[in-house]
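Structure Section — protein described below
Tokens — whole-number codes for backbone shape
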Amino acid sequence: MSTRPCFTCKKTVYVNEKIDVDGRWYHRPCFKCSVPNCHSSLNLRNFQMAALDDSVLDPMTNRPLKVLVCKDHVPTLKHSSNVDSLSLSHTTSAPKPSTPGLHRALMG
């Protein structure tokens, strides 16, 4: 029988009690929101993985560490209306690519 440490409490998780998310095993009571003062119980239908702090890196991937969060604590992306409107106007005025002879190849 296989066992691994729980990603939250570091105690042994047995196969019959595990919740497996992205190769990380959790006990059912440990599967809760990681935001301080929240700790809402999660399940496989309502959990999200999010990087709350970009300075904490995952040693396996060297990317920001993603932790369990509830839907109320999923970080939102910040955007600038100037950059968004400029990139949109650029795409609408971009020339359309043309392939010479394509219509002839389709017509036979």
